């Protein structure tokens, strides 16, 4: 049975030593003193460890069951969800005007990592509700906010996003679901949506569906899509529940993982809905919340990596096989623990370096969202928009890779359900797919974000790296181990960006053929930057006489990343520079 | 429902145009004329497509069931296994003296790819029997061979290998299973074995277990292990079945994949067995057959990649989403098929280039086994011993990667059980683990194979690459696209090998910390060599006026591999040269 312990200390290090939230000058960050964040994260950790993690395998084994239109979640999910709700964990960064606690996105992000690592399928129910709240908060009318947000923020009611249809997922311009206006200002929504996570379940009294649909005579393609709010149970003016709406879950997907989360086929048969925002502005409404939603998926990826790593590490400490090549480490035992073997360590170091680097990257991203929102900082908004596809695409690829590496640590036992590592692999796999496949992330990055605002956000990123290197430089060993490789990697990224900017105009396929490698190249530079920032913080901490063992481990792990992962930028650059020809040469019939 | 079509033409290309079996001068290869191999492969393909492939999902969904010591295989497996048996598919390369067909290992390998791609779990039942036959053939007495081989070669009886125990897998020196001699020359075998693939099932009348155990007063460690033949049902002198032996399947593992193959816990309780080979020579007996067994696992890896690729490709041709960046490819349809998008093609090209390169590599390996055996060629034996850990470790990693890439092609649908791609991922995952984890393969490569015979096999490999480059050189485009990158990659491999040979004596951890990267570096050079050989064959074929479309596709795919995969050698070299320090620095307590 896998275990999970919240990495509170590592999180505290990122919050206070790396991001230095106390000095960030972002409204609301003053409340985030070390004692407060430690208390909140530890409390979340307790819930995660004692309540959510033990249900993770239960959820996987039982899955969700659809009967007569109702979805039963796995045993124990209901009670655990109540604890999440009653503890106020669903409302951390929501608007106090509607019952939220008004805490920064950064703190909610740290808590989300803990809850998601412990039980991704269960935590998705509240994560999706949170996303729907954000959309209503940003685009709903005052009346809609007043009616729907308070129970949704408390997670008494759930929320969903309905985009995909059987014939279209990525290409939302093909959507067929119709919205017919009625005399009372509502709309009759008709169509079929698939892939609706948490579309129907027994954890909440009501479910508020946000549905993309077309108004009559809407323009073709994505410019003719509007967003509608469609409750499972209609809500009376006084907020009490009324009649059942004309919608139903007609099927559940049988999936590779996240069995505890219901992935629904939803049929809308003239269901009553209300327009959210302006007509034909549905895509805009969806995209407003995309940065935070995609950051949340990047988080899910490395959160599964974290829990997988913890269990692989424990196995490697306990399991006795073979002897260390440099002489037995434990001669009194029949064999040494496998953690003495260099190749086992190599796997564990990969897992550790990737996960801790990813955490720092995501926390930094969350702090950019806070800065953009709370300081109305357009530069921070532009930067997080640029980084969002990297966070989502790179970190979910690496999170899945981390789970596969962790599964490999115990050998055969990693393939069994008992040890539970294989579930982390299966659950993490979806993060590379949903909220826009990672291929789509890379196209968004190269096709849209790279040249946004004349390339200014990208230039700002390079300046930020340059400034960091200039400020941090001085110690010869630090320069050699961190700053030089970071500079080289950032140089590779610049070369690749120039290649795209030059080719993009005349030969879009040259850019698109290298988009995936560019996303990874960018990801490595970002994580390399974060490891350099962590190493600098560790140096500073050691000079200040803080815990040397903990900080030495950070430096060692950072050196590992810089020496063994960051050189991948050269490979990605070589692939990018090979251009479109190798990718596009083959005739379609020859595949 | 996934489909499978045997890639007969691609196989014929490797057999006849690349390996040129007709000119190889290996006894038995004269029979392998193109018409004969085409007929055999097509026939195997029919069986695979019509009978085995449709049962692949059935096997996954139903799994195996243990009741009262008996394992029931999934519906249809029994009838399909009978067709395998009756068609003579289990006896292709077995000794004609015992009812085999005496065909080369190479042809059996090509057939095994087809059967394994269609239904890995089902085909394992005969693959394991084949391995047990090989061990008996090599080490059994004349009487043992006469009694056991004929029904095993016909697969009326199954066979297994029993190595792992609950407390030891990789480190077989820790084995505790005992063998007590009895007066009649038999032994009483007592102990528990785990991970026994096909340890109990209903496909065969009897199962012959080969079991590693210790004789009384055996030396400690691996030098005190002997091999025993332990039938499920004792065999009378006339070959008829007698009493049930004192052994039982006491449990089935619940696993991530290959659900249709029973992974058994086996309890031996004073079971009657017979010594195979000399006392204390059990490890030697196991290792004799290791090259072929590990080649078989490397094959399983890319075979799953092949079937995954076929289904991803079909999806990419059918699914309409978005428009080509260079202008619509099919303006009459609501959207273009996703195969027009460069990033979708990138994924498909990765899958295709890896799979076809892997096939050529494995076929080459099988031809080396044939040459070693049939020509008693010590150099071929030494070369395949060197390459075996690369074939097993690199090709199963890449086979799994191919399945994950294929699963990504359809986006969300790839995560569903319906499409079936997720099963290929789960099934392929085991190949990285069993028959020695890939980490162990890398340690075998660097710790044992690299310096074997003073490094002569390694030098012979480099000479082989050099000679090929010298002979093939001449055409400027071919040199630039294939031979130069191959030469550079081979140079990286030499640099890495020198690093290890220099460090190996004084600092084993420096070699072991880079072993995994070395295995991958080596794998890339081998597959780069095979793509160069395929490209040369394609050039020659085109000059001879053969099918230009097919050969052009080979050249295009080869160029893709050389341009976009082979540069990975530089990354692996950089990691290797970073040495042991980054890997070993962290204190065990700091993980």
TrEMBL record, chains A, B:
Any GO molecular function: oxidoreductase activity, acting on the CH-CH group of donors
Protein's UniProt keywords contain Flavoprotein: yes
Keyword tags: FAD, Flavoprotein, Oxidoreductase
Gene3D superfamilies per UniProt: Acyl-CoA dehydrogenase/oxidase, N-terminal domain, Butyryl-CoA Dehydrogenase, subunit A, domain 2, Butyryl-CoA Dehydrogenase, subunit A, domain 3
TM stretches of this protein: none
Domain of life: Bacteria
Residues in Acyl-CoA dehydrogenase/oxidase N-terminal domain copies: 38-155
EC number in record: 1.3.99.41
Domain Acetyl-CoA dehydrogenase-like C-terminal: 461-587
Occurrences of domain Acyl-CoA dehydrogenase/oxidase C-terminal (ranges): 281-442
Keyword Protease belongs to the record: no
Names of required cofactors: FAD
Reaction(s) catalysed (UniProt annotation): 3-(methylsulfanyl)propanoyl-CoA + oxidized [electron-transfer flavoprotein] + H(+) = 3-(methylsulfanyl)acryloyl-CoA + reduced [electron-transfer flavoprotein]
Acyl-CoA oxidase/dehydrogenase middle domain: residues covered: 161-266
Family per similarity comment: Belongs to the acyl-CoA dehydrogenase family.
PANTHER family: ACYL-COA DEHYDROGENASE, BROAD-SPECIFICITY LINEAR ACYL-COA DEHYDROGENASE FADE5
Functional note: Involved in the assimilation of dimethylsulphoniopropionate (DMSP), an important compound in the fixation of carbon in marine phytoplankton, by mediating the conversion of 3-(methylthio)propanoyl-CoA (MMPA-CoA) to 3-(methylthio)acryloyl-CoA (MTA-CoA).
Protein known as: 3-methylmercaptopropionyl-CoA dehydrogenase
